[in-house]
Amino acid sequence: MATILRMPEVLANATAAVVSAWIVDEGSTFSVGDTLAEVETEKALVDLPAEQDGILGRILAKPGDTTAVGAPIAVLIAQGETEADIDAVLGGAAASEPGPIAEPGPIAEPVVAEPARVAAPIASESRRLFVSPIARIRARDNGVDLETIRGTGPGGRIVRVDVEAAIATRTPEPAPAAAPATVSSASPSPNGGYTAIPHTGMRKAIARRLTESKSTVPHFYLTTECRVDELLALRARANESSSVKISVNDLVIKAVAAAFTDVPEANVTWTDTHLRRWDAVDIGVAVATDGGLLTPVVRGVEALTLTQVAATVAELVGRARAGRLRQDELEGGSFSVTNLGMYGTTEFSAIINPPQSGILAVGAAKPQPVVIDGQLAVATVMRCTLSVDHRAVDGALAARWLAAFTTRIENPLSILI
Over the stretch 175-191, which tens digit does the pLDDT of each residue have? Predict the structure, then answer.
């Protein structure tokens, strides 16, 4: 018989979510386990699987709609059932229960594109838009009407390159004649003009979690200087024969895992009732995207080869920047690595990503004077700063771990053994 499909609670304590795209078309059949739709969270896309065989009878929540958790988003029917059966099972529920809501919940994007969509001269009420999260963000931030774009992705999905092409080819609109007078006359701002950029769901999530971290997690910091000449030479030799390009960050991730093997008591996270000491080393890798910072987790790094780590990280980074990470890939782990060395940053301190207990901030490798065996010399030095949750790891234990990491980095062959 016909059944109502409701918006699931894709994140704990979430009150609303966004249907990013329907994978199954209205009127099409599906089997148990098939993905019916993609639901957008603050940082990832979550597949909504079918729990039984059936037909997607009617879609109630259109792509882009912010919908309350538990509200109807579609009606599923069996073979032979009709529109009358759909109307009967709804029984007015679609009209009386919460559906699309104007105020975005914790995982919703601000609904800022709707005025442009309504006013678009070629907008079609019957056209269903399938848009990747990153494309939606780029379109909103650049004032691009998605109704005017024809997607080149699978099934006509609008992807980032489509939006970028629209941005590159559109004719700039002339500034309103009254705008300069507004800035320079009546009541000029002493600080100059500005552009208001609405917060995305991801940006709100980052702000909330970082504020929570600095407010509730007692951070302390330790810094080490690693001589990395041998590490850089090893990377160069490895890349001569490796099928996957190996980065300095890949070697750092392997050294982090090796240090946890040397000091396993540091591989812990804090809870209100106990410490969790983890058997495997799962490491988050900070990735900068257009929408904000994501930290996908590489699982079981201690058991992976350097080439496997490089391939896994490259794949996660690519999908992070395309907005294609799954929610489970952003969860877990006891530790993270963030690297700003490619921007020339020498040293910085990072904020811990709860519930993890530490994060290593990696700076640029630069030549500098050092003393080796009592003699002044020049070496390539990389500064790394460890941020630690003092509830889970004490100072002496953190210092032991950082010393183990430094030893592994300065003796890079030990990373591969």
Answer: 444 444 444 444 555 66
Which amino acid is located at 323 in the chain? G
DSSP-assigned beta bridge partners for residue 383: 225
The tokens for 330 are 């952003």
> Which residues, in sequence order, are bridge partners of residue 18?
40, 66
Give the helix, strand, coil percentages of the chain, each rounded to 5. Answer: 35, 25, 40
User: Parallel, antiparallel, or unpaired: how do β-strands 287-289 and 292-294 relate?
Assistant: antiparallel
Q: Which strand (E) or helix (H) includes residue 319?
A: helix 306-321
Name residues whose C-beta falls within 8 Å of residue 296's C-beta, 6 or more positions apart in sequence.
Answer: 284, 285, 287, 316, 317, 319, 320, 325, 329, 330
- Choosing from 199, 219, 274, 390, the catalytic residue is 390
What count of Cα atoms within 13 Å lies in the side-chain half-sphere of residue 233? 10
User: Known catalytic residue: 390?
Assistant: yes
- Retrieve residue 160's tokens: 């980032």
pLDDT (tens digit per residue) in 247-290:
999 999 999 999 999 999 999 999 999 999 999 999 999 999 88
Lookup: tokens for 392: 């889970």
The one-letter amino acid code at 309 reads V
For residue 10, what are its two tokens?
């894709």
Global pTM value: 0.66
Taking the C-alpha atoms of residue 122 and residue 99, their distance in angstroms, rounded to an integer, is: 27
